[in-house]
Specification:
Mean pLDDT: 92
Bound molecules: fe (ii) ion
Helix content: under 10%
Strand content: 35-45%
CATH topology of one domain: Lipocalin
Structural class: mainly beta
CATH class of one domain: Mainly Beta
Oligomer: single chain
CATH architecture of one domain: Beta Barrel
Radius of gyration: 21 Å
Number of strands: 34
Distance between the termini: 42 Å
């Protein structure tokens, strides 16, 4: 029997703008601003169906909060990818796990560095004063936060270069910048860490780290003084990327003998201070990291290997096959000083968690207690719950409802909050029994429902978004950073 979570992988074609969604409960009136999300929304392109959840055409979703009201709008990103697909009914650029159906010559042209994808379906953030949707190439797309109109590409400058980047930059409130990195493939490949100033978007290279076989990394970690690359041993030979003729991720191979390698770089000097190796795992998401005396504590959602990528092919998800690839919240403690002790690891809880979020404004890069995420309440089911976890005690709390599949919980701090986690969680939930989606507002510390706003359609499952508070009528980008 097909499980109802498969409904979250159906296409959504319609673009709407609704001034006021029906609400059950009461939206806090202090919640003023917009939750902006991006998500794959179209997988069947006419003459081609993409292979993987990560490959669907990007759509923006906007939930705007004012005076207890929730407005909603959705709009495809008018990327080059989107326009080309509209014309041809198929992909024109290589995606994560799908390629255009092309001749050999066409394949070479569609390689991501010759014609990279701008299908920004992974996350929303800000570089300088530009609000951007991101994917894992160096082609973010700028858009208008009110109309969702596509404004063009955000260009990484020539100093940054690279072909592959990430959709999870880190904002440093003290230094007033975003940190991110690119992978530059070449005769000598390298990871290039860089920063983008909030004020004017100026880019500065922080460090260049040579690498023979770059790893697939979806995120990285940040503490007050350091940036940390966790190189999972899912690695690629640059030549293979060019000549294999396979979709992007299928060129990477799992080599657990390499182990998991942490590279710790000082933000201000660009100096690499530690390289530490431990047992291999794979992960998409870091949770948080911080310094503690002469150690660095780093939490991530670990998998024993990259089989999770295979579980996310549409051929499996759309038939509702049992989903049994769940991540576990693990803590690594990495010595920073001159010590012979190695990296220590322990599992914080057996509760499954993915799409983790923290009270970012208060705890990013610092000691913290609380992580929220999507959970897996019923074995074999897809992500079917929201979880609250105390990372010190492992204590958990869960929100779940039969037939409901929540997306990433985005935390919004209450005004004047005194404690970590004082505020609300916003999550887009598929109600598979009622064939619709709703925006759930939870009390973030009690995991209790405050309100829900009913959407006019099923919103396909997505990945990430952020809440942007209203400033000067919603036009100002002054408070864009998390
Ligand atoms: Fe992600």
């Amino acid at each position: 029997m097909t499980r109802i979570f498969a409904k979250g992988f159906a296409d959504l074609e319609h673009e709407v703008a609704v001034e006021s969604l029906p609400i059950a409960g009461a939206i806090p009136t202090w919640l003023e601003g917009a939750l902006l999300r991006t998500a794959p929304a179209k997988f069947d392109l006419g003459r081609q169906t993409v292979n993987h959840w990560f490959d669907g055409l990007a759509m923006l979703h906007r939930f705007a909060f004012a005076d207890g009201n929730v407005a909603y709008a959705n709009r495809f990103i008018r990327s080059a990818n989107y326009r080309e697909q509209q014309r041809s009914g198929r992909l024109s650029r290589g995606e994560f796990a799908s390629d255009p159906c092309h001749t050999l010559f066409g394949r070479v042209l569609s390689r991501f560095w010759a014609k990279p994808t701008d299908n920004c379906n992974v996350s929303i953030n800000a570089f300088g004063q530009s609000l951007v949707a991101l994917t894992e190439t160096t082609l973010p797309v700028r858009f208008d936060p009110e109309t969702l109109e596509t404004l063009g590409h955000y260009d990484y400058g020539p100093r940054v270069g690279g072909q592959i980047s990430i959709a999870h930059p880190h904002h440093d409130a003290a230094r007033r910048c975003q940190f991110s990195y690119v992978v530059e493939f070449g005769r000598r490949s390298r990871y290039r860490l860089f920063r983008v100033a909030d004020e004017d978007g100026t880019e500065t290279v922080v460090a260049d780290l040579p690498v023979d076989q770059p790893a697939y990394m979806h995120s990285f970690a940040m503490t007050e003084r350091y940036l940390v690359l966790a190189e999972f041993p899912l690695v690629v030979s640059p030549l293979r990327l060019i000549f294999s003729g396979k979709p992007f991720i299928r060129n990477y191979r799992w080599d657990p003998q390499r182990g998991l390698r942490f590279q710790i770089v000082e933000k201000d000097s660009g100096r690499r201070i530690v390289t530490a190796v431990t047992e291999a795992v794979f992960a998409f998401h870091h949770v948080n990291a911080y310094e503690r005396e002469d150690e660095l504590v780093l939490d991530l959602v670990a998998y024993p290997d990259p089989a999770i990528i295979d579980h996310l092919y549409l051929s499996r998800l759309r038939t509702g096959e049992p989903f049994d690839a769940v991540g576990s919240l693990c803590r690594y403690v990495i010595p920073l000083g001159p010590t012979k002790s190695g990296v220590r690891k322990h599992q914080i809880t057996t509760t499954a968690v993915e799409l983790p979020r923290i009270d970012y404004g208060r705890t990013a890069g610092r000691a913290y207690r609380v992580v929220w995420g999507t959970g897996n309440h019923e074995p074999g089911n897809f992500l079917d719950s929201l979880v609250w976890i105390d990372v010190e005690t492992g204590q958990c709390a869960v929100w779940a409802e039969p037939g409901c599949y929540p997306g990433e919980p985005v935390f919004v701090a209450a005004p004047g909050a005194n404690d970590e986690g004082e505020g609300v969680l916003l999550s887009v939930v598929l109600d598979g029994q009622r064939d619709t989606s709703f925006l759930l507002v939870l009390d973030a510390s009690r995991m209790a429902e405050i309100a829900r706003a009913e959407c006019p359609h099923v919103i396909p499952f997505g990945f990430h978004g952020n809440f942007f508070p209203t400033e000067n009528g919603g036009r100002s980008l002054r408070n864009l950073h998390r």
